[in-house]
Amino acid sequence: MSxxxxxxxxxxxxxxxxxxxxxxxxxxxxxxxxxxxxxxxGKGKPLLLLNGIGAxxxxxxxxxxxxxxxxxxxxxxxxxxxxxxxxxxxxMRSYARLTATLLDQLxxxxxxxxxxxxxxALAQQFAKQYPQRCNKxxxxxxxxxxxxxxxxxxxxxxxxxxxx
Length: 164
Description:
Number of domains: 1
Distance between the termini: 60 Å
Order of helices and strands: HEEEEHEHEHEH
Strand order of the largest sheet: 1-2-3-5-4-6-7
Shape: globular
Low-confidence stretches: 9-16
């Protein structure tokens, strides 16, 4: 039995949900974080799913079901789903550090990462901070992670125009 399996056996808190996720609670940075893991066939890297802000891990159940043989790791961000809420706003690098810490606790060294919406910005930050841990990066319906607003209104109007 691997270290991750031993840790997970100790902290399992809830039964499987429809997608086959096993739900666990891990404590890190003083917060209780709800984590879902669906065991895969052992082929390929595990896939870390990073959700949109405010969304619980159940939002991606249909996607998880479609990824039959892939090992999936997903968690409720602090303040979302059933995870604890942090006491003050975090910077994106703090969320990336939390993600790396959770992966450490679970025994994962390298993962493929898929970020959806706000999770895409986090996925980019995670890949930047921890390039050795991110095998592949997939971004879905996300932005560049920056403010995305140009400094001058005229620039925005030019960007919106189909005529260039």
